[in-house]
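QUALITY CONTROL LOG
STEP: pairwise intake check
CHECKER ROLE: data steward
CRITERIA: each record must contain a sequence immediately followed by its structure tokens, with no blank fields

ENTRY 1 OF 2
RESULT FIELD BELOW
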Amino acid sequence: MRIYLTVIDDTPEAEIALRFAARRAVKTGGGVEILALIPPQEFIAFGGVQATIEDDQRRHAEGLVQRAAGTLLEESGLRPSLTVRSGDGPKVIRELIAANPQIAALVLGAAASGVPGELVAHFAADAGSLTVPLMIVPGGLDREAIDRLS
């Protein structure tokens, strides 16, 4: 099965990428994997404080993927795979792609204006080393345009 990997966060462009990935998956008989990244924390001398921060971030990330999965199921009928990982985003994404040969594309959303986003900038600059196509969805697209293009 063809899997479209997308990364979810609190940005509008992440939702746009998710919609595009879902529409492509429906049209190609594939699936979607939603990844929420938890950035690595700087060391804090008081372990309890660091553990609390990490726990809050994990719960937030899990909430993001659950909401995204609910939206995806409601709008397209797809049940996505959900992944929450801690670590450096590009490294985690490359590891997921390497571990799952069914991942057929990485779908990221670019911000509607200004800097496109950290992951978009990273992978666009290094797209030639990816083992799957990189799909960058412009953040300025509305739902109708996404549906038409996907």
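ENTRY 2 OF 2
RESULT FIELD BELOW
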Amino acid sequence: MSQKFQEIINSERPVLIDFFATWCQPCKVQSSVLNTVKENIGEGARIIKVDVDQYPALAAQYGVRGVPTLAVFKNGELLWKESGVHDVNTLTNLLQQYI
């Protein structure tokens, strides 16, 4: 996953990473929000989900201490990262800044 992850975040297209856990209730809420965000931004950005229980080293590498944690990367650079549930408008506007 690490090599593939590097390829994904090195994209010129912004990538929103959703660090989540299957047992996390707020993560389920965030997931449905991200579906709407994806509809809003179309091909302008990618949205990728990373299960912190399956990829703990990746979560640790990016300082993920709670779920959900969202991070935006472009050209391999971490542009934004926050924990907690975020709404559709906030995330859509955030991604549009980097497209």
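INTAKE CHECK: passed for both entries
DESCRIPTIVE NOTE, ENTRY 2: The chain is about 40% helix and 25% strand.
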